[in-house]
Amino acid sequence: MNPDVMQNVLYGLEIMWKGMFGIFAVIILITLIVILMSKIPDKGANEENK
User: Fold this and answer.
1) 11-48 pLDDT, tens per residue?
2) What is the CA radius of gyration of the chain?
3) DSSP one-letter string for 1-50
């Protein structure tokens, strides 16, 4: 394989790795935020139920 082609493939893989890591990091962050928000008691709903 041509060295220039191999360098381009490795550069492309590096970009894809960074992109996939970013996507997974955002998904984990959103999941943690949703879990934390679900643990916070909703004061407005409690007042309406009384």
Assistant:
1) 999 999 999 999 999 999 999 999 999 998 877 666 55
2) 22
3) --HHHHHHHHHHHHHHHHHHHHHHHHHHHHHHHHHHHHHS--HHHHHHH-
The Cα 12–Cα 19 span in angstroms is 11
Please, what is the Cα angle at 43 between 38 and 46, to 5 degrees?
A: 100
Calpha distance 27→30 (Å, rounded): 5
pTM over 0.90: no
